[in-house]
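note to self: dont lose this again. the chain is below, predicted strucutre after it. 104 aa total, dont forget to put it in the shared folder this time
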Amino acid sequence: MSEHPLDTQGKRPAFFTDPVIDAMMTAVLEVMTENWSLKERLYALEKTLTENGVIASDAVESVTWSADDIQAHEVERQRILKDAFRALQGDFVGRSARVSDIDK
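---
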């Protein structure tokens, strides 16, 4: 039986020798996915509003935010960051610690 190169930590597959690299890649991909989803919806909304004459094509660039808007945006930004970096909250053991354990 051949050894499968895929190493797993619980239910999460590992693709790199250092699990922290896997966690970082997961975080980056999470941010990219969230970003694209939001951009796609934003493009559709702006296109629909502009084509239906609801807003002018330059209306979005001239928006002014209130203090309440800014606070709400910060709450949402923190949620997105928390979701994106949840992969880093795992209990990972670095390579040097693993080598040290093996040497003992």
